[in-house]
Design goal:
The protein is of the alpha/beta class. Helices cover 38% and strands 22% of the residues. The two termini are 25 Å apart.
């Protein structure tokens, strides 16, 4: 039997799956506590050993808080917003968004956000070049010691990158996230962010001694899960919604069927439409994020009485996270919400996360799909299920090398 081993090193647990590649099926899975306090390889090796089988390793990780990304753009409602959407789709937690020419106060705020990576965008191709080059210069002189992905105006990228490299900043250049107004191209920047995450971030979090862990990790966990959600949506040919509740964060993924009118019609979004999207809520969880969940739920006027069980906390975290995902966000004070998602045509809703897998999933999905006061329209004819075997991350990890196996793993019926 030809097998592969897919491992997700999470902030709390390390999950491993043994996959029969010839039969395109899950053989068995194992789960152990993540050993981030000592060396994450200890837990990873224990999870693999518990499977009782071997194969090529495919590893993703969100240990140590995952990937913290800051976006620096030109206009808050256009290129900065486009960069924000691309960052989320790349598996990052977007911790800061700046728009316009950076000044001293803006650099101070950026530094305070403690990003692992900066995504520098600005200008459509052939459009404004001044702000992108100016911001590159400010970042170069700020001595933030943070790698930068430059994904702005094609005519100004070389000059921007040159200013950064001249001051010793690690730079990766990618295609423009918004080459034309209303046209969002996430692929090149998403790949560049993944490369920087693997090269600079995994090794820099001191999760393991030596280089072995860094060499094993292929992506951030949310990036792998989003790839699995894309495989699922492609297999179904319909909209998919996934709510993943963790100990520290709650992620929402949606893969929708593209709408030509929304992309090219008169009401199109100037920052472009991302049909496969993810949002991460770093203040919502059932363990380390419990306090943030209760505070956010109270702010949303949800009933927090009796919220002492993981199941109840998961329902609140999922509800707030889905509201934020569907409603979008305001990029600044007094600005309109952007990036919202119309989820009415979703045909499959999937619950994920330890609490949902261990018996609380139906109650959590009942809460989020029965939310009628959150300012969003719930799916009207969706079936629901729980990813009890945690195969979405595995499918995402295998999607490039073994696409047919990945598609069969997410055959949810």
């Amino acid at each position: 039997m030809t097998t592969a081993v897919c491992v997700d090193v999470g902030s709390t647990y390390t999950k491993a799956c043994l996959i029969d590649l010839a039969g395109a099926r899950l053989v068995r899975r194992a789960e152990v506590p993540t050993t981030a306090g000592t060396d994450v390889l200890t837990g990873l090796d224990a999870a693999v050993a518990a499977l009782g089988g071997t194969g090529e390793l495919y590893v993703c990780s969100s240990a140590g808080g995952g990937l913290r990304l800051a976006v620096v753009g030109y206009e808050s409602l256009v290129t900065a917003e486009a960069g924000h959407r691309v960052g989320l789709s790349a598996g990052a937690q977007v911790v800061h968004v700046a728009a316009g020419p950076l000044d001293t106060a803006a650099v101070t705020a950026l530094r305070a956000a403690r990003p692992d990576v900066i995504l520098l965008v600005g200008g459509t191709d052939g459009g404004d070049a001044e702000v992108l080059v100016h911001n590159a210069g400010r970042l170069a002189s700020a001595r933030l010691r943070v790698p930068v992905v430059v994904a702005g105006n094609a005519d100004a990228r070389a000059a921007a990158a040159g200013r950064l490299t001249a001051r010793g900043v690690a730079v990766t250049v990618a295609g423009n996230v918004l080459p034309r107004i209303g046209v969002l191209d996430p692929g090149p920047a998403r790949a560049a962010i993944r490369e920087v995450f693997l090269r600079h971030v995994i090794g820099g979090k001191r999760l393991s001694r030596g280089a072995r862990f860094r060499s094993l990790v292929r992506s951030a966990t949310p990036d792998a899960v989003l790839a699995g959600v894309e495989v699922l949506a492609d297999r179904l040919g319909a909209g998919v919604l996934v709510v993943d509740v963790g100990g520290a964060t709650t992620d929402v993924y949606s893969a929708l069927v593209p709408d030509a009118e929304a992309e090219a019609g008169p009401n199109r979004d100037v920052a472009g439409t991302l049909w496969r999207s993810r949002t991460v809520e770093g203040d919502l969880g059932v363990a380390a994020g419990a306090a943030g969940t209760l505070a956010a739920a109270a702010a949303e006027k949800l009933d927090t009485a009796g919220s002492v069980t993981d199941r109840r906390l998961a329902a609140l975290a999922a509800t707030v996270a889905l509201r934020r995902h569907a409603r979008g966000h305001a990029p600044g004070p007094g600005l309109p919400r952007t990036g919202g998602r119309d989820l009415r045509d979703v045909r499959l809703v999937v619950g994920s996360g330890g609490v949902l897998r261990h018996g609380g999933g139906d109650a959590v999905l009942d809460a989020v799909l029965g939310d009628t006061a959150g300012g969003w329209a719930a799916p009207t004819a969706a079936r629901r299920m729980i990813d009890t075997e945690y195969v979405l991350a595995a499918a995402g990890l295998l999607a490039t090398d073994h696409p047919a196996v990945a598609a069969e793993l997410v055959n949810f019926g």
